[in-house]
Amino acid sequence: NKRIAVLTSGGDAPGMNACIRAVVVASEGAGHTVIGFEHGFNGLLAANWRKLDSKKVHNIIQRGGTILRSARCKEFKQDVSAKLAAKHLDELAIDALLVIGGDGSFHGAKHLSNFWDGQVIGLPGTIDNDIYGTDATIGYYTAIETAMDSIDKVRDTADAFERIFLVEVMGRHAGFLGASAALSGAANYVILPELFTDKETTLKDIHQQLSIHRQRYGHESFIIVLTENLWPEGIAELGVQLEELTGGEVRPVILGHIQRGGSPVSQDRMLATLLGVNAVRCVEQNKTGIMVGMQNNKPVEIELSQTWENRKELGDTLTQTMVTMLNERHNWGMTT
Ligand code: F6P
């Protein structure tokens, strides 16, 4: 029987609790012991942990956030931190550490493995879906739902006032969330890192699409979805530039951390559960230095370093048809 530790790190994502639950329930069923470190890698450094059993993870599958708390831990990059974490893990006789998080968290896990002999396994949890090696990450589907729902609401007021709206979504430097929210929310235009060329071309293109839209629908209600960290001067400045260019009235909306919260949708709960159970299986098979993921509905294991050495493309998650639609945006703006 194994002693397994689990932590959640980096940006929290809906479904992290479902994943913790799956790890605990699967482990307990197989006779393993589980402890949880609090506040991500900070908990490893401070030896801040607690025992987890199925009673403690009862009734959490539907809860957003993470019962183990999360954090971004810059100091974990230092060797002295990884050594201290290794010492604490050895004192607790831990066989395997499961890290639920994104890119930065996986770097931390890999760094630890340079100083610790135990097994290290990553589980992809981030609303950004920017992790290579898995079609989706835990939290991504719920964030799409939240952003889509927000676009629906924005459209009501956009229609009432005949205004142009700029809706900024998260995604760090990836457009998965923006693309999915724009497609499912029937936005009229989308600005994504993967398709972005330069400011001038984009402004001109928006102006052209808005003119087509004005002719076709005879109204000004026009929704533009924009991925964060992309427009050099920020969303407010883009709004001013658009007003000058189009003569329309523009309002910017930043969805922000709302996209990180809420009860996980069924797809995230199921993904989280499958990944949690598969991670425990990998522990039993003495695997280490890997991330568990899902590709084409099949569980996969990827070397941790591969997850950041490769870049995930839009087409790896969205179908090629969708990517084509995004490229030909004037054909898919379906707002009426
Ligand atoms: O990685 C998840 C994420 O929400 C990104 O989409 C966003 O850029 C970032 O985290 C925000 O980080 P913080 O909550 O630390 O401001």
UniProtKB/TrEMBL annotation:
Gene Ontology molecular function terms on file: 6-phosphofructokinase activity; AMP binding; ATP binding; fructose-6-phosphate binding; identical protein binding; metal ion binding; monosaccharide binding
EC number: 2.7.1.11
This protein's name: 6-phosphofructokinase
Main location as per UniProt: cytoplasm
Protein location: Cytoplasm
Family of the protein in this entry: Belongs to the phosphofructokinase type A (PFKA) family.
A single cellular component GO annotation: 6-phosphofructokinase complex
Domain Phosphofructokinase: start-end pairs: 3-282
Alphabetical keyword list: Allosteric enzyme, ATP-binding, Cytoplasm, Glycolysis, Kinase, Magnesium, Metal-binding, Nucleotide-binding, Transferase
GO-annotated biological processes: canonical glycolysis; fructose 1,6-bisphosphate metabolic process; fructose 6-phosphate metabolic process
InterPro entries membership: ATP_PFK, ATP_PFK_prok-type, Phosphofructokinase_CS, Phosphofructokinase_dom, PKF_sf
NCBIfam families in alphabetical order: PRK03202.1 (NF002872)
